[in-house]
Design brief:
It is a multi-pass membrane protein. Helices cover 73% and strands 2% of the residues. By secondary structure, it is mainly α.
């Protein structure tokens, strides 16, 4: 049973002051879009936005656990592409078969990463780079470098295309349930505390008797599983397995995690702020597309990337200032 302070907002803010910048930026962008664009708050835009960005939310949350331990997972985009092809091949059997098996395929890649890093002691950057290339090559091999159409006669496309009450996409509902479960795991379980402790100091965690290797294996298995779920949503939403997709998704996930206040060195992080970071990245593109639609200016896709990068830099700079101010207050106290 959850205690009354399980998700206390004031405690969350006090423990995660570094994440306030992303919430401020997200709220500001939502307000700006609401005031400037007629259809920004329309059901179609909100539904489409959540449906598409559910993939990036889930891989970002999986990535956040890895980064909290001081690791990295470069394979998530390629694993998502691979599992989208697996899910497409399994689509005739329905979502109830394709979903768990594709997620298990993602978990298998996470298991490879864990084996390379924990048993063979290969640095995470090198280990996950190898699995990134392996997953990308595997996706191209099993698909013959072609998109793999799903079976439209089954219920497979329900997750990516259908909505509850014609508004809320099934994809964001599934992702939301997973995210809430992982938030609880991080905040309220010994495994979550171990994940953060490893990022704070792996050697010290071992001396404290914490099950370091178990926690490290868990985060890579989790990241692979989240990428697998993203692959299912990709295939279900686009109606085909996409072996050429996923390029740069790992960078999007890392950016979402960092903007959300998780330290790249590990030891500090927040699941809700990571979700906010992923939404913020998606919202920047959403607003730029609306701006193009007004016809007053035309911003090419290349300039959109430049603007997005500049905006993210501003958020991170604001975040750094907040952290510096809090540290000064702590020394004064």
């Amino acid at each position: 049973m959850l205690d009354s302070n399980a998700f206390d907002l004031r405690k969350y803010i006090s423990r995660n002051p570094q994440s306030m910048a992303v919430w401020v930026a997200l709220a500001a962008l939502i307000l700006f879009g609401f005031l400037r664009y007629d259809n920004f708050s329309g059901a179609y835009n909100i539904s489409s936005f959540l449906n598409y960005n559910s993939m990036f939310i889930i891989i970002s949350v999986g990535m956040s656990f890895v980064i909290m331990t001081g690791g990295i997972d470069l394979s998530v985009g390629s694993v998502a592409a691979f599992t989208s092809v697996i899910a497409a091949y399994l689509s005739p059997h329905g979502i109830e078969i394709a979903l768990p098996l594709a997620v298990l395929a993602g978990v298998a890649f996470g298991g490879l990463n864990a084996f390379f890093i924990i048993v063979l002691r290969i640095p995470p950057f090198i280990a996950t780079l190898a699995t990134m290339l392996g997953a990308k090559g595997g996706a191209l091999v099993i698909s013959d470098a072609n998109t793999i159409a799903v079976d439209w006669g089954s219920n497979f496309t329900k997750m990516g295309m259908e909505k509850i009450y014609n508004f809320l996409p099934w994809s964001i509902v599934v992702v939301g349930i997973v995210v809430i479960a992982l938030w609880f795991l991080l905040e309220k379980t010994s495994l979550g505390r171990t994940v953060l402790a490893i990022g704070g100091g792996e050697d010290a965690s071992m001396l404290m008797g914490l099950k370091v290797n178990r926690a490290k294996a868990f985060v890579y298995l989790l990241s692979g599983g989240c990428a697998g779920l993203a692959g299912v949503i990709l295939a279900s939403g686009f109606g085909a397995g996409q072996p050429l997709e996923g390029i740069g998704w790992e960078l999007t996930a890392i950016a979402s995690v960092v903007v959300g206040g998780t330290l790249l060195t590990g030891g500090l992080g927040s699941v809700p702020a990571t979700v906010a970071g992923a939404l913020l990245l998606g919202l920047v593109f959403n607003i730029l597309n609306f701006e193009n639609g007004l016809g007053t200016i035309t911003i090419s896709a290349y300039w959109q990337m430049v603007i997005r990068g500049g905006f993210l830099f501003a958020v991170i700079l604001f975040q750094a200032r907040v952290m510096s101010r809090n540290k000064r207050k702590g020394r004064v106290a």
